[in-house]
Amino acid sequence: MGSLDGKVAIVTGGGTGIGRGIALAFAGEGCSVVIAARTAERLERAAEEIRASGAEALAVPTDVTDEASVEALFEAATGRFGRLDILVNNSGIVAGGEIGDIPIERWDEVMAVNVRGVFLCTRAAFRIMKAQGGGRIINIGSISADRPREDSAPYTTSKHAVTGLTRSTALDGRQYGISCGQLNPGNTLVEWRADLQDRPGMNISEEPMVQVEDMARGALYMAALPPEANALELTMLPVAQPYVGRG
To answer: Is 243 a catalytic residue?
Structure first.
């Protein structure tokens, strides 16, 4: 038996990176998974991987910044599976620059995906979970919210906002059996980081990394907790990564 047998999860940003890793980890524990992202081709490839593992998967192309698109995602999930037990808010973008040089369009784009998108998905999940008597929401934050890098104001600010939304959701949800926690990744070897290793002058191999599968284990731990328990915040990072005292 898997630790998530009979559960249904939505994972945004589920076509690549940490989202894909989480979706595969959940599927390996018996969970039916709905994955969402903008790129249909990547989503379908990830869904095929999940199905190959023996689990059910549904790929729904979604723009998390668009209210109608988000509502369609949750309608598709409940239409297919009849319920929703877990939401993983993983969709996000990384963009920055020195504060004096940041175009307002870049700021707005980061806030739209990293904050508005998390809110829209959380709101939709909350309504479903409240009606069915409970559920769990996991938001993907970042260690950058507490220990920012230089030239990261939009991203860092957005992840601070996610922390506030996580705590508010946990507070609002507790009377309905809805838990909300936040997983804060450190350096994780997702596709774009791996690509940089092969570009002249862009080698990041000196920075310690953990694997996507390591981060997925953290999300799985949070998802598999009994309904009366919640991991409000879990920070996972390479042992050698500067964090305490960073900056």
So the answer is: no
